[in-house]
Amino acid sequence: MKFATVEHRGSPAAVIAVTDTEAAVLPAGFTDIESIARVSDEERLSAVHEALWAGERLQVSGLAWLPPVLRPGKILCVALNNSANPDRIMSGPDTPAMFVKPSSSLVGHGRAIRLRKEDGRVHPEPELAVVIGRTGADIAQDEALSHVFGYTVLNDITAPGLRNEDTFHYRAIHPDPGAADGVRFVESWVSYPARYKGADTFAPLGPWVVTADDVADPHALRITCSHDGRLITDDNTANLRFGVAEVISFASRYLTLEQGDVIGMGTALRRSGAGGAVQNLDLNRLGGLVEITVDGIGALANHVEWR
Amino acid sequence: MKFATVEHRGSPAAVIAVTDTEAAVLPAGFTDIESIARVSDEERLSAVHEALWAGERLQVSGLAWLPPVLRPGKILCVALNNSANPDRIMSGPDTPAMFVKPSSSLVGHGRAIRLRKEDGRVHPEPELAVVIGRTGADIAQDEALSHVFGYTVLNDITAPGLRNEDTFHYRAIHPDPGAADGVRFVESWVSYPARYKGADTFAPLGPWVVTADDVADPHALRITCSHDGRLITDDNTANLRFGVAEVISFASRYLTLEQGDVIGMGTALRRSGAGGAVQNLDLNRLGGLVEITVDGIGALANHVEWR
Predict the structure, then answer these.
(1) Average pLDDT of B16-41?
(2) A254 with B199: Cβ contact below 8 A
(3) Which terminus of chain B, N or C, has fewer Cβ atoms within 10 Å?
(4) Chain A, 253-272: which have a CB under 8 Å from a chain B CB?
């Protein structure tokens, strides 16, 4: 099944895809994907049946898309999670490294990525995203996929200029039992991602969430990123360094994964024959339309506006 | 006025302080501070009157505290925001650098900070926290304080060992029009904070939220951190590098601040006469009880448990 969240008669509403061109509105109370994940399997099936038999029909081409989950507790993103990354990593963890984007950074399919010229270079990052269906902590790897409600597409917009601004080169305070005051200073670098990863409109998400039972293998999906019709990235989720079950299991040892949480699985970055590096695609200079596709999941398109 | 969120008859409920020892339960529907911030001033006053006249009375000493806001859209924290920091900063931004802790990291007053021995050093960070009462973006500095609902206390628990694990030394991809493939590699460091700042129980918050009208000057409050009764930090919010209005105005240029959002104003770190550096207080080695006080706002105490 494919669900989406749209603006309908001035309010958010969940819809289900009936055909490629038609969607049906779910019963009142189902206002986004989280509300669908929350109910029992029986209630969900009953709502789907009601939608298909009696729900208002909408043309997909006319939908006003909202983020599939309106207000997830967190958008947890895995950094540098592509098997092409190790070439450029001099040192780093052997486990998934993660950051959080806030729900306020979400926008739906078709909405603008809003930039300010003075914020410097801004580039897209094409990612498969997981929507958590069942809350859990310390989830075993072989149980992990049972916590997945479905899959969608994330554009993990990134502003490396703001990252550089928000990086400190500093002397970290470390304990040192041998020192008179018990501390020593260690030269360190630390970068803080709230602006460069978490600004408004930096998390386009959607359009559809495809339920897990309809995705045979989340690690065998072609993923592309194009700009104004030119193919930049042409990769496959087979190239994820850490897979969905590994990430869910590892992350949930530290952060409880809640119903509705979104996990960005990390940037697909293999260049297409003609394309450059996706990090080289400066949306703040070029403007235009970014489209990310994940085979069988959907195509997420967002254009740039300046504010 | 002083509000809190507590567990009452198995559900979250908002309470108002009546005396130092007694609280009154707000009417049904007021389940946390966000629900209090959401209503009009008239509705809030009416609810307070009803609580004071007819609400169930509870002993403060027996309250089962929950995070004042149960599920804020974000907990936005300002890094290195103390005027004592520049001594150890070799380079960094002239504006507030920020990161996000997810709502799943919150715990209330009196609840355990739960650690794993293998996660290495873990230290507290005593902070004044702001609760946003009114949603806004691009908020002017002279309007910023009107967006504050109230103030509370945050312990921004930090695991520097996990930070080191989640730091990459890598070659970042930068555009280079002069290069054959349009890119050059720049040696960089980047650290990802989801684990070291955002793990479960890494955001003790509370106990009380004092409404903004009852805080004469948020930049003249003594702030302390003690461990098992020993005073470690003795600082004052006068030493914040960027004040509340500056942080709100700057942050809201990038991230819409939503009703219920929590802002951690940055670590107070001036050592008391007897105390060491707060970064030297390894809770994972020492265990024990951490208490953070902000004068006029409250005292937040949490003990360590191992899991």
Answers:
(1) 97
(2) yes
(3) C
(4) 254-256, 258
